[in-house]
Amino acid sequence: MPVEINSPFFEFNANVSPKEDLIIFSSFGREDDLGGGDLYISRKDDNGKWSQSKNMGALINSDKLDYSPFIDWENRNFYFTSERKTNHDRELKSVYSLKQIANSPLNGFGNIFKIGLDEIEKLD
Predict the structure, then answer these.
(1) pLDDT of residue 57
(2) What is the domain partition of the chain in residue ranges?
(3) Distance between CA atoms of 15 and 55, rounded to whole angstroms?
(4) Cβ distance 19 to 4 under 8 Å?
(5) Residue 2 neighbours by CB under 8 Å, 6+ apart
(6) CB 5, CB 13: distance < 8 Å
(7) CA torsion, ordered 83, 87, 89, 92, to nearest 10 deg
(8) Distance CA 46, CA 55 (A)
């Protein structure tokens, strides 16, 4: 892959469109990283040149690790995994309450998120 996609940092979990004209991938360590590793997007133009990869922004990325992009082209959905968590307002009074939070969705241990592909296409 060209320098528009690769950097001196870490790129991983690439997902390429069936036409090979769009790539979404995870990267860690870039200057515009929101924290923990973010998802980036690049498109190929009519001449076959990739655009400079762009951070997908706060719509997708968080201050935690965001990774494993996947596009369901048929149903027009974008899926990704994130280690973001919600703030639990519950007070930790016991090991049991800690286990309840740890075993609940959005616990920060990696959850799958879905967004319509229409929203991704607006990121240009």
Answers:
(1) 93
(2) 10-121
(3) 15
(4) no
(5) 50
(6) no
(7) 50
(8) 22
Tokens linked to 26: 């995870």
The answer to whether 40 and 77 have CB atoms below 8 angstroms apart is no
Cα(82)–Cα(93) distance, integer angstroms: 27
Q: How many CA atoms lie within 13 A of 68 on its CB side?
A: 11
pLDDT of residue 4: 86
CA distances from 107 to 13, 88, 124 (A): 22, 9, 31
Distance CA 21, CA 29 (A): 25
7-16: long-range pairs with CB below 8 Å, 24+: 10/37, 12/67, 13/67, 13/68, 13/69, 14/69, 15/69, 15/70, 15/71
Per-residue model confidence as pLDDT tens digits over 66-106? 999 999 999 999 999 998 876 656 677 777 776 766 666 56
Question: Tens digits of per-residue pLDDT, 18-52?
Answer: 999 999 999 999 999 998 899 999 999 999 999 99
Q: What is the pLDDT of residue 88?
A: 58
